[in-house]
Amino acid sequence: MNQTADVIIIGGGINGCAAAYYLAKKGVKDVIVLEASDSIGHGGSSRNGGGVRQSGRDVRELPYVMYGIQHLWPGLSEELGVDVEYTQKGNLRLGKTEKHLEKLQTLADNAKKVGLDVRMIDGDEVREINPYLSDDIIGASWCPTDGHANPLMATLGYYKKSLSMGVRYYTGAEVQSLKKVKGRLRQVVLTDGTVFEGDTVIVAAGYESRYIVRTVGIDVPMTRYFDQALVTEAQPEMFPQMLGTADANFYGHQTTHGSFVFGSDCGLEESMDMPLNEFKTISMTLPSSCRAIEGYIPALKDAKIVRSWGGWLDMCLDGVPVISPVDVVPGLILACGFTGHGFGSAPAVGLILAQMAMGEETVVDMSALRYDRFDPYQ
User: In what residue span(s) does the FAD dependent oxidoreductase domain sit (predicted)?
Assistant: First the structure.
């Protein structure tokens, strides 16, 4: 097999697949994607609630997330030839206490400063938008341009389209190390000893990125976090909005076929002592998720759960990802530490990674996400 390429991407999740597609679209003829597992999108890309949101984010993320929602998501199904089930019907981020509203107000105020259409509404307006929500909700932030999509279909769309354009994918390709040649990153070595060579290497492998890039002497300050999700049986059509809460104890939406998909957080997830290839859900946390959902959406209290799953998030120290070339390792580009926010931004991130690999100016300023923000000598 040909083990050389113009660009090698480590990680076959949605960010890696999107970067591969946009590189191929730009005319790069030789792109390789290396995925450690036996299937594409096996990590966080297939283990999330499908939110495509701007609200509730750190302002450093907003420029590229807003770009993606304005320019990429609306036509993505047509571009990829796969229905990604993108729905843009808004996001309600719900609060039950004054403390919740203070947190939501701060997030909304910060987002408005960079041009996002988001505002605070009271409980009555919340229930006008969505009558299925609890009377205990006293307010929410409302962003009408937020939405949701199907993570599996979006990842599959980027994979299939890029594959048809000549991108080469290798599954079961676990990376052991990176190696420089004459001061520049050149080689990717697999655990079976196979060596791939490329002019540019993009590392977009979730938390495993930390182990991979340590082999060339750099570190991204991340922790791992076990995220869980559940799917209900199909329900009558209820509401199209994406939901979240001020405490982030659950988020989710109703799918096009009627079931609800929810992600959840009970506070114990960062302490889970399991290997990164373990995806079993945990009985001590899922009941907490169900109680939280019932407390906000009483109409779902009798809905049966048909499936649950888990996956690992790469949580960055300062809450936003690293998306940048690495000056001290020429030829290396990082895309990791997404902190659970990576799905909705993936089209924009994929485009920006392709632009970085081509040496082009990115569509928005990404300087706030540079790796060297953690350099104490900067």
Answer: 6-356
d(CA 61, CA 174) in angstroms, rounded, equals 30
- CATH 3.50.50.60 is held by the domain 4-49+152-221+318-374: yes
Tell me the three state secondary structure of residue 325. strand
**Token digits for 239?**
């509401």
Cβ contact 1:8 at 8 Å = no
Which pairs with CB-CB distance under 8 Å and at least 24 residues apart come from 273-279? 274/226, 276/207, 276/208, 276/224, 276/312, 277/37, 279/47, 279/309, 279/310, 279/311
How confident is the model at residue 272, as a pLDDT? 66
Each residue's pLDDT tens digit, 23-64: 999 999 999 999 999 999 988 887 788 999 999 999 999 999
Does 3.90.920.10 match the CATH number of domain 89-146+223-316? no
C-alpha–C-alpha distance, residues 40 and 12, integer Å: 5
In the chain, residues under CATH classification 3.30.9.10 are 89-146+223-316
- The pTM score is 0.95
Give the Cα-Cα-Cα angle 242, 244, 247 (nearest 5 degrees): 175
Residues 107 and 174: their CA atoms lie apart, in Å, by 39
Q: Specify whether the CB–CB gap between 233 and 306 falls below 8 A.
A: yes
Dist CA 75 CA 346 (whole Å): 14
Q: Please name which of 55, 85, 82 lies closest in space to residue 159, comparing C-alpha atoms.
A: 82
**Amino acid sitting at position 292:** A
Range(s) of the chain covered by CATH 3.50.50.60: 4-49+152-221+318-374
The stretches in the chain having pLDDT less than 50 are none
